[in-house]
Amino acid sequence: MAELTLKSVGKTYAGGVDAVSDVNIDIKDGEFIVLVGPSGCGKSTLLRMVAGLETVTRGDVHIGGRRVNDLDPAERDIAMVFQNYALYPHMSVRDNMAYGLKNRGESKAVIEERVAEAARMLELGQYLDRKPRALSGGQRQRVAMGRAIVRQPSAFLFDEPLSNLDAKLRVSMRMEIRKLQQRLGTTSLYVTHDQLEAMTLADRLVVLNGGRVEQIGAPLEVYRKP
Ligand code: ADP
Ligand code: ADP
Predict the structure, then answer these.
(1) Which residues are listed as membrane-spanning (predicted)?
(2) Which pTM does this prediction carry?
(3) What is the mean pLDDT of the chain?
């Protein structure tokens, strides 16, 4: 766990689009921040800058006090969960979850233990030898979460992780993420379009508009305003 700090962060894409401007957010150790706002307001861009998938044009991103602007994604100690799951289709569930740890050179014993624990938490034990194509959407998303959890990162980033699931699954996965959050207490930045997700998960809500922070506050505070 670690605090995650955005200081005057901005992004101008090649071609001159100002996607994010002067964003300041101090995320406390263990805090769960949900980022909302209309389509095109810069949510994905912001997340991708924190992940290291997009360069930061202006300002600084700190994780656990360390400036990470110029670090590769793998060096940031952050795990990201994507809307489209981004699983490796040719690998089993087990290997998908183990991949990051193997790359990092963890021992076989550590990898087995972490994968087994994540599989227990996410009720994936009976699917470990399957390929992603033989799983339901909800199961695939749980594998994507398992892959993030096993790394025991300083922070999680979620980019609309539930928006490809049907309404019923979204409700149960929302509760599942809430349980994981209570159990792991990992600093998180979560993008969603779903107000119930935001209300259920957020310690604080950040509303972006036109690439700028419009409001920051507890969910009830933010949603009460017109
Ligand atoms: P899109 O065009 O991408 O569907 P919307 O304009 O529907 O985007 O807004 C996306 C979500 O962001 C909404 O579901 C809403 O919950 C949230 N949202 C947008 N603006 C605000 C706001 N000012 N305060 C709180 N939540 C907001
Ligand atoms: P959101 O996730 O809130 O829908 P995005 O971060 O995807 O918003 O986009 C913010 C703005 O940046 C939009 O105007 C979008 O068109 C633009 N944008 C996003 N990605 C790129 C890119 N690779 N190149 C140029 N402009 C982009």
Answers:
(1) none
(2) 0.85
(3) 93
Q: What string of DSSP letters covers 8-24?
A: EEEEE-TTS-EEEEEEE
Q: CA end-to-end span of the chain, whole Å?
A: 35
Our CA dihedral for 154, 206, 139, 87, rounded to 10 degrees, sits at -60
For ligand 2, atom 24, name the residue with the nearest CA. Answer: 13
Please count the CA atoms within 13 angstroms of the CA of 64 that sit on its side-chain side.
11
CB-based contact 209:176 (threshold 8 Å) = no
**80 C-beta neighbours (distance < 10 Å), count:** 24
CB 207 within 8 A of CB 215: yes
Other Cβ atoms closer than 10 A to 38: 11
Task: Average the pLDDT over 142-158 and give the result.
Answer: 94
Instruction: Tell me: ipTM over 0.90.
Output: no
